[in-house]
Specification:
mainly beta; five-stranded mixed sheet; two-stranded antiparallel ribbon; elongated
Length: about 160
């Protein structure tokens, strides 16, 4: 969504609100298509003492598969973003600066970049997920599987003597 900023570029204290949705259902992340609801983007661009600042809230629902226990689950995702808009980027290393194209900016490009960069590298159904039993494959979140998973790896059996 292109946003024309010509009305506020020279007017400190002014703002332009925006709200739109984006269909990211075709976006592939980690060999999955996790975005099941449209991404809702709402916010505003403000001119504060001559500095244009974009602030937005991104919201959607993700359909994910846990990396430890392989159980599918849904997760609400909310992300607050802030970006400084400039005619010329001050620093190429700083991801918070986005260049204007004339007197307009592509808000959807900023939203998608922030959304992708905020995705977790390791997806867990919950922080204390116990995963699967390496011997029988049972989901340890449902309780102990009962197999003899406490067997000592024969390569490490010599270390048991050190504990005695």
């Amino acid at each position: 969504m292109w946003l024309n900023l010509s009305k506020i570029i020279d007017v400190p204290g002014d703002r332009i609100p925006f709200e739109f949705t984006m269909d990211l259902s075709d976006m592939e992340l980690n060999s999955q298509r996790p975005v099941i609801n449209p991404l809702r983007v709402s916010g505003a661009v403000e001119n504060s003492a001559g500095v244009l600042t974009l602030r937005a809230l991104l919201e959607t629902t993700l359909s994910l598969v846990c990396d430890r226990c392989a159980v599918p689950f849904e997760q609400e995702k909310k992300l607050d973003i802030k970006a400084i808009l400039a005619d010329k980027p001050q620093d190429n290393e700083n991801d918070d600066f986005f260049p204007l194209e004339g007197d307009r900016i592509d808000v959807s490009e900023i939203a998608v970049s922030a959304f992708v960069l905020d995705m977790e590298m390791k997806i867990l159904c919950r922080p204390d997920c116990k995963g699967l039993c390496p011997k029988c494959g049972a989901n340890l979140n449902d309780g102990d599987c009962g197999c003899s998973r406490r067997e000592i790896d024969p390569r490490l059996a010599g270390l048991k003597k050190l504990l005695q």
